Amino acid sequence: MSDLFSIFIKFFFPTMMVGVIIYDFFTLTIPNTLNFLIFIGFIFIAFMTGISLVDFGWHMLACFVALTFGFTLFAFNMFGGGDAKSLAASVTWFGWQPQTVELLLATAILGGVFAVFLLIMRSQLVQYLLPIKLTNIQWVRAIFTPQARMPYGVAIGAAGIWLYSPDKWLALIQ
User: Fold this and answer.
1) DSSP secondary-structure letter at 164?
2) Domain limits, the chain
């Protein structure tokens, strides 16, 4: 395969995860378009590398399980709908592998660390320390208001970038 395809394999998923982080942090939403691109990017790479239908099925099963888990959390108001879709799209890239469990654990741990950070930043003391000019910026108010939701896409994206290894895909095109 071409060098261009190798570059696509190396950088597409991490770039999409950066998009998830940025969108969720600044807007508290993750666009369906971004989640769709992550999912379709996997389909494209799976097709181009020629993974077996059985392996493809395992990746889809992992996606379905993650989507079910994410929407269960969404039903209990613990997760946003975009977060659930991003988690499922991300898991699709890892498949039904031990690395998927690592992705979920890393997401939970990074999410916990980020939640503690947000709790500190949302405390009354920090609210008084924020300059007035900053509190007039919409995304600052959205993130640092004590009642605001947590942008869990930050943890999902960070865990995805941390654990993504293009080696599996690159080995298939050698």
Assistant:
1) -
2) 3-172
